[in-house]
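User: structure tokens for Fluoride-specific ion channel FluC, please.
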Amino acid sequence: MLGNLLLVAIGSAVGGVGRYAVGLLLPYDPTGPSLPIATLLVNLSGSLAIGLISGLAMPGGILASVPSLNLFMTAGILGGFTTFSAFSEQTAQMLAEGEPFLVVTYATMLVWGCVASAAIGLYLGTRI
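Assistant: Done. Predicted tokens:
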């Protein structure tokens, strides 16, 4: 139990640093009408990765016999990397600034994009 908590904690730190680095590379200016590309990219790529890892962890997959690695990567790294809270705050900010078109565009891209990315990852993971 303690070992699993430590795996998740270390993975979360790695993922959080990765998310911060993407934000530095693709800064978001909340004062103008623009989409938060870093958050979108982080959540889309994280969804693809978690789908892929989940597929690889299914019975017969190459990660099926290593549940601790699966936990480290999904709950740890990807849990720290992806961010629903930033998406929520940025969407609320756009709404407060009177940008309903951006809100609908961003929310649609993120939600359906993440579901599609996870499905693609899962499909690929079960084929490897």
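User: Anything notable?

Assistant: The CA atoms of residues 5 and 61 lie 24 Å apart.
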